[in-house]
Each structure stands twice: as C-alpha cells, then as structure tokens.
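User: Could you go from structure to sequence for me? I need the amino acid at each position, not a summary. Structure tokens:
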C-alpha cells in the first residue's frame, strides 16, 4: 500500500503503521493463555459451537481487521502522504498550493499605458493569483514587493496576502534587485523542500521585463537598510544566476510574467544629470549649469522644453531637439549670490514615466578658502621669496581686467613665523596653512598645529635652504606616524652642474585633484618638463601617498600626502622659489597647480548630498544641534531623537538618515535649532529610465529555470511547472474515523447478538 504514495511530509511517523499489529498480537496472546481441558458436558457445547463456528470466525476476523485498519490509516494520516496528479490515488488527494510572488515595484513600472500603469497591472495580476488559493485547504502565499531590497508583505494565509496587496498603490523609486528578491524566495522554498524532500513552490515574477534587471549583476551584497547586521548576506549567492542555479537544484522554475504591453523599446525622456561647467569659484562668480536630457526611445523628439529651478525660483526655459537614443544639453547661466547649499531642480514636460521627468541636485557654493602663508625666508628679491610668489597667485586681481570681477576662491594672509609663535596670528582661524621654507618651530606651536590639523585643517610644507633637516624631523616626524610629517627627511640632493643636467617629474598621480589638469596630453609637459636642481630626500611613512616622483635613479618623492586624523598634511620636497627649481616660472604651471591644489586641499569635505534611493545620509555641523527634524519630500516630518556625536574640532556628526527613510525620490531637509538647515536629494537611478525590454526568447536563453508566462496561459505541466502534488491526510483521517465507527457498531452488534444467542 505504501508504494501507492510518492512520499510523506512526516516520513518518520510512517513507522506508526506497525501499531496496526497490536490488536493481532493481543488476539494471539489471548489464544495462547487458554489451555483446553476435556470434560463430559463439553460434548454438547462443542456440538453447538461447530454449527456456528464459521460465522463466528468471520465476525471476529472482520472486527480485528477494522481495529487494525483504524490504527494503520490513522498513522498514515499523521505521516501525511502525498501523491501526484497522475497517480492511482489522485482522486483522493487534496492539492495544497504554495506560491511565491515577486511584485516588481521598481520605478520603471510607473510607466503609464493608456489608463493604467504597469504597476497597477502587476498588482492586479498578483491579486488574481492569490484569489485562486484556498486557505481552508492549507494553501499559502509568500508575497514580496521588490525594489532595492525585498519587502515581505505576507507569508501564509491567502486572505492576509490579499489585504496586503490591496494596500499597494504606487511603485517605489528604486531599482529592482531580482537576486535579493529571489534569494528570499529561495529560503522559503528550502524550508518547504526540507519537509517534503522536493521543492513544490510555484514562483512567479510579475514584471515589466526591463532588460537591465535580468542582464546586470545583482547587488546582493548590499544590505537592506533596516537589516541591522553587517555582512548579513555574506553567505548568499553573489549573482542572479547563482540564485537561479540553487532554485533549479530544488526542481523549481521561475514563471516570469510580462505585464507591460507594447514594443521592445517604449518611448521615454529623462533628466539624467545636472552639472556645472567649469569650476565654481564662489558666491558672485558666474557659472553655467548643464542639464542633460536623454531620449531612450528610437524616435527623435523636437522642441523639448527644459526648465530649471534654483532654490524654488524658475529660470527661463530652454528648448532642445533630441535624436533617437541620443542626448541633448540645456545650458543655463547662473550666478549664486550666497555661499552654502543651493537646490537645483530640472524639469521636463511630463511623459508616460513621470519618475524621471525631474531631477534634484544639491550644489554647494564654498566659502573662500582661508589660507595662511607662513613666510620662513622673507626677501626683497621677489624671485627668492616663495611666499610672496604664492600670495600673488592666491590674491584676487582687481580692476577692469580682473576675471569674474575680482572674485577669488581664496582669502589669503601672509605672516612670519614670529607672528604665529607670538600669538599675533591664530592659526586655528585658517583652513590651510602653508609653511614656506620655515627653519624650525617651537614645541608649543607644533602642538597647536597638531590639534588644528587633527580637527580637519590642512598643513603644507614646502622646503628650501632655510629648513633645518634635523630640527624638522625632531618637531614633525615620529616613526610611529604620530608626527605631522608624511615622511622623514634625509639629506639635500643637488645636481652636479645646473648647466649639464637637472631632475624632472618622472611620474605623478593623474587622478589627484591637484594634478588632474596635467593628465591631459597637451598640458602634461608643463608639469613633467620643469627642471629641478635641488630637493631633499625623504622616506615616506606607512600609509602616505606619493603624488609625484622625480626621475632620479631612486625615484625620489617630490610631493607626498598623508591623512592626519581628520585633516591632511602635504610635503613638497623642493622649493617654491627659483633657488632650487624653475617650476615657478615654467610657463603657466604654478598658477593652475596652486589653484587646483589649494581649492581641493583647503576646502572642507562636504557630504555626498545626492543619493540613490535607500542610501544613507550623514553630515557634520560646527554648532551643537538641538531639535533635529527630518522633512521628507511629501512634507511629512519626523523628529530625530538620537544624540549627535562629537567628532572633535568643535564639530558634531548628526544622526545618520538610514535607507528606510530615503526610499522616496525628492528633496529632503534636516532642520536643527542652532546649527541651521541641511538639504540632500534622492534620485531615481538612471538605469530605471532605460526601458528596453527582454523578449521571451531571450529570457529563456538566459537560464533554464526562467520560463516566460503569458497572461492567461495554463500554468500546468506544459509550461514547465511540475505536476501538482496532493496530500491524502484528510481522506485517510475520514477513513480512519469510518473504521472506528464501524468497529464500534460491529462489536456492539456482535456482543448483543451473542448475549441473546
């Protein structure tokens, strides 16, 4: 009989069938207990017994079989056997279903066709699938809303799943991470397969078939914003195909249902980027804002109107023509009257996908960099006064010929060392301090500089003939890295004859902000051909970065950078005047080098204020904040009760805004009492604007487990779904109950009949 079943949900309980032998054993033991003893009157009893012997045996046998059958069938019911739809017991089976539904809630599903959106069709289809289930039969629904991370909507009772689906109104502004979603479904399928020896979960992915979802690597190593565990997914598959391989190992398939009608490339326009043309010198300086518009459809679009709002004030619109699958730029001239954060919002005329028709960007207009140039070797000869040369570069030009009306990104001041050590100049009031050919400093000033740099300032050393190497090392270098210097100075190196040879820069970090200009081939020679006659050998500490090396035999470092707590320290191992090098007068090299270097090194770092949905925002303030409040794009507000963290240098780090609070695209504001207001923006990722769709044939070619399913198509075996398997426990329980009732009635009838016989 057991061969009629495919298997058991509780195979260990099948042994309970052996209990059916208990009535037989009791019967046999009772027979052995009575030893027949012949006596005279027994002849008459035996004569009567022989007349009814066959009938009594049949009655007793039937009673025994009923008792054994009741126990055996009840044990089988507890073990929960199951059989396939084509098995001999299929008529008695109860076909319980477990379905897992992944609802694609990415931003692209907000695309509107005629009346409804793709997302509305997806939700409607999910509702239809759940309505097919019967909770009383034991059917279960596992429903996930998929975005940057999966959101579990329901697990178990189909009625609860329907209520959760009815609450779905709008898609997210996120990108679908299919690997993460199917990874969650995989865990559910494993639990079900562990009890039934084979996975039988029906998996549905309801989507708009966006190509990038299936063809790009998944971001499964990124944590859900509220997971609270670092590395939670470290044991999970790292790519979509790895998840699909494990689903296939369970004998399952993934039904992918396309709910987006139309062609393979729906028309769509998007604002893909807002950027500045050229450097932003500061408040009052003119700059051009470039808004890039992309056409993701095949047909050209003419006279597309592009608008720009700055801090809520709309500028005159621009009109652009965009070729099919092309881009166009709208240029807006802008002058920022104040420093700080400014909110830029670019808008297009609405199309079928509204989520990418606008883009918000936070532009930070910096305050002028406060630069202190410490002159260690003042000289009446300009060519020998490196500090004076730096001041000429940093000080703004005035007059009619001055660019940008004399606006400068720097607020420089020159002083001598004695003014710092005497207290006439406070170094903590400056963002960047440049020690130019300074011979030695006092221990007290060294400590002040260490504390100031540790709090976030920048310190620059450029050498020269006044620098005392031993004194420099004793004040600024420590082998354990606790000193300010990024390297230990060795000894001065000079060419044998300036007429016969010189050193040049042999290699440099072309990606560093101070040197990136020279990465362009037409400007490289301005840096690499400048002659150097003298420099000081240096041994960088561990962790220091050599930004430029000379071409001597040892590849000596010329420009070195290191982090010092929250600040940075730079070392230029040659001079900035003409006593050791012709670098200051080698064409226009010095001016762009100093400009780019001081702007990048002296500008305090600002937090990334443009995020993707689900990313975390963190910022620091210079005044202790009270009453912190988060204002979301829909103007809802939430009080933040976490305490700010003091990070040193009279700065506090505001509580992080986690990904669960940044899932909506738009403008966010952090308002505080005493520390001002801080804005950041969340943007729909650019991939969501690319609506190119995967065909059913391409989907099947990606992986064997992916099966396209058209709406209304039969979901039976012909579509790759394994034959449904039904359980028999209800039928067996009824049979066991019938056997018990029959045994009771039969035994009562036999007893009554034999009493009167």
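Assistant: Here is the amino acid at each position, in order:
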């Amino acid at each position: 009989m057991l061969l009629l079943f495919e298997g058991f949900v509780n195979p260990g309980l099948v042994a309970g069938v052996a209990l059916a032998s208990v009535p037989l054993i009791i019967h046999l033991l009772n027979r052995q207990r009575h030893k027949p003893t012949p006596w005279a009157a027994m002849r008459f009893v035996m004569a009567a017994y022989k007349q009814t012997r066959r009938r009594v045996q049949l009655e007793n046998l039937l009673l025994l079989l009923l008792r054994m059958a009741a126990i055996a069938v009840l044990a089988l019911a507890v073990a929960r056997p199951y059989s396939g739809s084509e098995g001999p017991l299929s008529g008695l089976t109860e076909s319980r279903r477990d379905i897992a539904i992944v609802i694609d809630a990415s931003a692209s599903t907000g695309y509107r066709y005629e009346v409804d959106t793709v997302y509305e069709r997806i939700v409607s289809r999910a509702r239809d699938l759940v309505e097919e289930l019967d909770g009383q039969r034991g059917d279960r629904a596992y429903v996930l809303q998929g975005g940057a991370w999966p959101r579990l909507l329901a697990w178990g009772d189909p009625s609860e799943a329907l209520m959760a689906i009815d609450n779905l109104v709008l898609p997210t502004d996120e990108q679908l991470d299919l690997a993460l979603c199917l990874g969650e479904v995989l865990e559910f399928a494993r639990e079900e397969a562990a009890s039934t020896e084979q996975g039988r979960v029906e998996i549905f992915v309801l989507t708009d078939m966006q190509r990038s979802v299936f063809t790009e690597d998944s971001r499964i190593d990124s944590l859900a914003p509220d997971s609270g565990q670092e590395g939670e997914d470290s044991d999970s598959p790292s790519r979509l195909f790895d998840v699909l391989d494990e689903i296939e190992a369970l004998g399952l398939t993934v039904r992918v249902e396309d709910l987006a009608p139309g062609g393979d490339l729906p028309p769509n326009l998007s604002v893909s980027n807002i950027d500045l043309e050229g450097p932003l010198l500061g408040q009052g300086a003119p700059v051009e804002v470039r808004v890039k518009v992309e056409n993701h459809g095949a047909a050209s679009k003419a006279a597309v109107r592009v608008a720009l709002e700055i801090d809520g004030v709309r500028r005159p619109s621009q009109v652009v023509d965009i070729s099919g699958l092309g881009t166009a730029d709208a240029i807006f001239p802008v002058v920022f009257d104040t420093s700080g954060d400014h909110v830029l919002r670019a808008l297009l005329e609405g199309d079928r996908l509204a989520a990418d028709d606008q883009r918000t960007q936070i532009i930070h207009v910096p305050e002028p960099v406060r630069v202190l140039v410490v002159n260690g070797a003042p000289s009446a000869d300009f060519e020998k006064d490196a500090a004076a040369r730096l001041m000429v570069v940093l000080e703004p030009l005035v007059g009619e010929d001055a660019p940008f009306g004399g606006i400068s990104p720097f607020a420089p001041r020159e002083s001598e060392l004695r003014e710092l050590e005497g207290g006439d100049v406070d170094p903590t009031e400056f963002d960047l301090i440049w020690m130019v050919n300074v011979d030695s400093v006092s221990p007290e000033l060294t400590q002040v500089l260490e504390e100031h740099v540790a709090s976030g300032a920048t310190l620059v050393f450029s050498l020269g003939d006044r620098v005392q190497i031993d004194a420099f090392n004793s004040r600024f270098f420590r082998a354990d890295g606790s000193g300010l210097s990024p390297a230990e100075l060795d000894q001065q190196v000079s060419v044998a004859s300036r007429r016969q040879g010189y050193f040049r820069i042999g290699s440099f970090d072309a990606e560093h902000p101070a040197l990136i200009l020279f990465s362009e081939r037409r400007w490289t020679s301005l840096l690499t051909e400048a002659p150097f006659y003298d420099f000081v050998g240096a041994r960088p500490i561990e962790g220091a970065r050599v930004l430029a090396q000379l071409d001597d035999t040892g590849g000596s470092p010329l420009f070195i950078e290191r982090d010092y707590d929250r600040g940075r320290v730079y070392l230029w191992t040659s001079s900035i005047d003409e006593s050791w090098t012709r670098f200051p007068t080698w064409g226009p090299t010095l001016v762009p080098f100093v400009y780019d270097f001081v702007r990048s090194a002296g500008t305090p770092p600002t937090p990334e204020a443009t995020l993707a949905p689900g990313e975390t925002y963190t910022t620091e303030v210079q005044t202790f904040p009270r009453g912190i409040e988060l204002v979301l794009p829909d103007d809802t507000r939430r009080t933040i009760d976490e305490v700010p963290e003091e990070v040193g240098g009279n700065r506090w780090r505001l509580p992080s805004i986690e990904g669960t609070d940044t899932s909506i695209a738009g403008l966010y504001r952090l308002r505080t009492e005493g520390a001002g207001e801080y804005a950041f923006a969340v943007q729909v990722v650019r991939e969501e604007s690319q609506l190119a769709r995967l065909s059913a044939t391409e989907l099947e070619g990606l992986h064997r487990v992916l099966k396209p399913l058209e709406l209304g198509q039969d979901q039976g075996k012909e579509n790759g779904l394994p034959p449904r398997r039904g359980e028999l426990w209800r039928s067996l329980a009824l049979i066991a109950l019938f056997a018990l009732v029959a045994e009771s009635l039969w035994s009562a009838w036999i007893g009554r009949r034999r009493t009167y016989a």
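One structural detail worth keeping in mind: The chain has five domains: 10-81+729-756, 96-264+695-722, 269-350, 370-602, 610-682.
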